[in-house]
Amino acid sequence: MSEEQAVVELREQVYGEVLELFEGDRATAGLWLSSPIRVLGNQAPITLMDTEAGLLKVRYLIKKWEEGAVS
What we know:
Blueprint: H1 3-21, H2 26-33, H3 45-48, H4 52-66
Helix pairs in contact: 1-4
């Protein structure tokens, strides 16, 4: 599998995790993805989702949020 294909697959997984986090509410998920997040250096998650490293940062944030570690 190419690195580009791996990023595409990871991006799809992360989108799915975001949707799950917002209980399938695409509008709210989209708003969250496009809003600056302080723990991401005031960057919107969507801006980080073009690279594996960025996707992993977003995924880590989602996991922490699910655990209640992020408000």
